[in-house]
């Protein structure tokens, strides 16, 4: 695959398409370029191909047409370099391992020393507010805390690209809003990290994003790309501001197409 010269471009999709072997056109002609340091949300109805795009970015699924560059190289190469990390809706913590061992697992798989694993796991557990729970087992944590631990595990390998597929969908509204703020804090401290975030929740997308990609139902195409030009840190008052309401309306309108 051709190597892009622009290292600041984290993901480049050109006419990206995916037709599954059974004939389902999941993604069609998607053109999106994502730069370093963006927080980009994908919103769209169920089945519009959001997860399929993520699978292609992580190299778990191949495009059937068009091109896709991740970190200026192929998705598989980017994954090999540990440049990408993934957080799913359900936490994927191993129930028989303590939180610190779960969080250090990606480093263990790479052969890192025990000391490095512990240091790095403690660093990210502090970032997500779980430094007092290093020895706990997953079953001892609430849903929100398990999600924090999953985020810590994704951050432990210092990814340049963090992909999050509806990470807060199973949480109650208060916990969801708390985690949104915490995630923005973590992201804004690391200007090199790009976050791609899937959500069905337009309010969540507007609060978090620098840009929002609105997708259409099958076949999944881009209906609109909206910029949210509101500076960070975003205060809680943003959620009830007229500007917020206006962007929510624009995105909701685009979703109807
Ligand atoms: N392995 C597969 N084989 C065949 N069709 C598939 C496969 N995976 C997904 N699809 C279909 O591709 C379309 C897009 O699926 P995808 O999971 O990417 O959508 P989504 O937008 O992430 O949906 P949701 O919001 O419900 O998670 C859907 O119609 C789905 O049924």
UniProtKB/TrEMBL annotation:
SMART domains: AAA (SM00382). InterPro entries: AAA+_ATPase (IPR003593), ABC_transporter-like_ATP-bd (IPR003439), ABC_transporter-like_CS (IPR017871), ABC_transporter_ATP-bind (IPR050166), P-loop_NTPase (IPR027417). The keyword Nucleotide-binding applies. Residues 11-242 form the ABC transporter domain. Keywords: ATP-binding, Nucleotide-binding, Transport. GO terms for molecular function: ATP binding; ATP hydrolysis activity. This is Nitrate ABC transporter ATPase. The lineage of its organism: Bacteria, Bacillati, Bacillota, Bacilli, Bacillales.
């Amino acid at each position: 695959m051709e190597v892009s010269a622009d290292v600041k471009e984290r993901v480049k999709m050109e006419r990206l398409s995916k037709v599954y072997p059974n004939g389902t056109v999941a993604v069609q002609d998607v053109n999106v370029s994502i730069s370093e340091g963006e927080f980009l949300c994908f919103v769209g109805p169920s089945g519009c191909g959001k997860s399929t795009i993520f699978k292609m970015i992580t190299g778990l699924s191949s495009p059937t047409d068009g091109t896709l560059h991740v970190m200026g190289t192929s998705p598989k190469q980017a994954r090999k370099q540990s440049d990408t990390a993934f957080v799913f809706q359900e936490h994927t913590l191993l129930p028989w391992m303590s939180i610190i061992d779960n969080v250090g697992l990606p480093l263990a798989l790479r052969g890192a020393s025990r000391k490095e694993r512990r240091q790095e796991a403690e660093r990210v557990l502090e970032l997500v507010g779980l430094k007092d729970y290093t020895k706990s087992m997953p079953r001892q944590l609430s849903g929100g805390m398990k999600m924090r631990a999953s985020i810590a595990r994704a951050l432990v390998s210092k990814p340049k690209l963090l992909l999050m597929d509806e990470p807060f969908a199973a949480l109650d509204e208060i916990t969801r809003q708390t985690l949104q703020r915490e995630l923005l804090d973590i992201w804004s401290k690391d200007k090199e990290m790009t976050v791609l975030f899937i959500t069905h929740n337009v309010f969540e997308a507007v609060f978090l994003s620098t840009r929002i990609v609105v997708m259409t139902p099958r076949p999944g195409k881009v209906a609109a790309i909206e910029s949210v030009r509101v500076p960070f840190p975003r205060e809680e008052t943003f959620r009830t501001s007229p500007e917020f309401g206006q962007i929510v309306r624009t995105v909701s309108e685009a979703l109807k197409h």
